[in-house]
Specification:
mainly alpha, 2 strands
Amino acid sequence: MAKTKAVKAAPVKTKTGKQKLASAAPSAPNIDIGIKEGDRKKIADGLAAFQADAFTLYLKTHNFHWNVTGSMFNSLHTMFETQYTEQWAALDDVAERIRALGFNAPGSYREFAALTSIPEEPGLTDSADWREMVRQLVTANEAVCRTARKVLDVADDADDAPTEDLMTQRLQTHEKYAWMLRSLLQ
């Protein structure tokens, strides 16, 4: 493995005669990963919408984990925890993909609320019925799937295999969650 030499900053005199260290590091090169900037932007915008949907689903799942009651408490409490834990880890992968494409990932409630396709649904005050929680999670997981498919199409057009792979993995997970949750209501 080749060793790299540390670049020392050269001293520079200021107008007052004092010395300070000049920056020796060059600016970062432009991103050149084989995907045009316009395509990277479209993909990053799609991933930002996916991130917003995924984060909204994560919050909803975690909320229901805390607040589920009734005869299905133990089963759903455990299932919701398993799902929100997996979802939390996946959020980081999506944000890091957006950054690798050269754009900032959304990270505030305001940004997520503006980008998400998952509506905030009323009616879960006091002791909400577990069936309503499960229904909402089915529809939210399906919304995440629809957004992932849109990103997958854009990534495919730009020949962005890493984003295609990430969205394929997320689709597989959220389709499975939607199926498992729907099965509880049948």
